[in-house]
Amino acid sequence: MITAVVVGNIEKVGPDYIWWRNGADKRQVNFADNWAMTKEDWAASFRGLVGKPAAIPVGGPFFIAVDFLPGIFEGTVRVIQSTFPVASVERL
Predict the structure, then answer these.
(1) Number of domains, the chain
(2) Which of 6, 11, 28, 49 could lock onto 21 through a cystine, CB 3.0 to 4.6 A?
(3) Model pTM score
C-alpha cells in the first residue's frame, strides 16, 4: 500500500506535544495517554529527534515516520510508520 506523506522536521517538544514543520505548514501533535505510556512520556520520546526529518500522512489515519529507506523508484523513499496515541493534530 502506498501512502502519500509530507516530510518536515520535528521542531519542538513540549510537555505533551510536538511541533512538526515543513516551511509554512506547522502542526502541533497532541499526544494521548494509553495503557503503555502517558502523553508526557510519548512527547518525551521525541526529545532526541528535534531538528530531524519526520513524515506525516497527507490523508488517512495519522502516523509519524522518522525512519526512511530508499524507495523502489528514483526520487522516492519508504517510511516506517509509527503510530502513537494522538488526541489531536492542530495547524498553527
Answers:
(1) 1
(2) 11
(3) 0.88
